[in-house]
Amino acid sequence: MKKKKDITSLKNKVNDNSEDKCSKIVKVGEPIVHHTSGSATGTWMRDPLGLLGTGKIWYMDGFNGDQVLEFKDMDHFKGGEVAKTYTLPYKFDGTGSVVYGRYLYFNRANTTHIVKYDLVTEKIARETVIRVKPRKFSYEWGGYNTVDLSVDESGLWILYTYWSYNVAHLCVQLRDPLTLGKLQHYCFISSETRNKMGNAFVACGVVYCIDSYNSATTTINSAYDTATFSGNNPEIKFVNKFKYNSMVTYNPREKVLYAWDNNRQITYPLEFEDETKT
Question: What InterPro entries would the database entry show (predicted)?
């Protein structure tokens, strides 16, 4: 019970401390390169709850492996000074892992299991199954991203592919970060098939789909609001500066996107609808 209260309190604190209330994204700024390292694909992130430190960075090279590197802060990350190396009990698939609180959530390799790994005890805390086919119908670039994870102001989201009538549909579920139980479920949220999307992420309860991963200039061409059960085609400009953007995820504390574009670890500043009205 205490852990649940702690996570709820931290989540509320993230929302309360945000300068801007939750609203829709209207602009994605130019990418900011923080470091160049690793493979063409990978994952890097901070914990939006800041439970283990707001500055810490976690880093997973490639789209299949068992190593997670931890860095004390951005300066140590840029200097390549690793604070800690974790060896996971299972390999991960994809570039959709997230850190939320003291836990790393990842897709167990060659399965559709979501694993909750405790970064403090270095043990598996919980595991659940998304009933879809593993390693099938990922994003356009491939990389075993059948199951993707995202975090926003609401909590932990799972993005995955539902195969129906020979069409790969994008679906999302909001999950309890403690039990991994399903809280909400939305499907058929974009007219574009999952295997034709560049990437997708959730911010302020809205699921955003990026049209291409390798076009230098593309768009967020689909947005589905889970609060109103409605979607639109915002056509927000999005720049893949290095033409191989394999990971895009939102950080609700910083109000930015984290991304990995052809071995560059980058962030994108965001402008929200309520900012344009002030």
Answer: Olfac-like_dom, Olfactomedin-like_domain
